[in-house]
Amino acid sequence: MDITIIGAGPRGLMTLGRLIAWQTQQTNEPLAVTVVDAYPIGGHVWRTDQPNELIMNTPAQQITLYADDSVKMAGENTVTGPNLSEWSDRAETAAYIRQQHYPQEAFFLAQTAALQPNDYAPRNLYGVYMQWVFDDMMHQLPANMTVSFIQATVDNVTPKNPATP
Prior knowledge:
Helix content: 25-40%
Number of strands: 3
């Protein structure tokens, strides 16, 4: 089966997480997912290059792209991971930020070192978190699933008829 997700923002990544969880319950049929967005992972709203002064309107501990125990949904499997506050507190987060060579690397490193659970994080830091989540999800893919990201603008959609090859 082939699925395309248009948009690499929070909804697109959460949809991808659910597809990964769903696919781990499948035994045979391969799944190919393509994520398309005109901007890098995070989309237009959560870009890593936006001004440092723009902050989110939700405390860091309440921001996540992963399902947690409070979410009731079909299927037993979920893709789990840290919320924004937990992610900022991980030792490997600084290494990830350094590996990406962000122009604002020093700012991101300082923000993750100082971020507390009830703080309001900069929007661009959430963009970094989203890129990390995407990379984390790529490491959790079942063997019968592939995911690709295409940075492009979608200007036309033609549904594929499932009865036609």
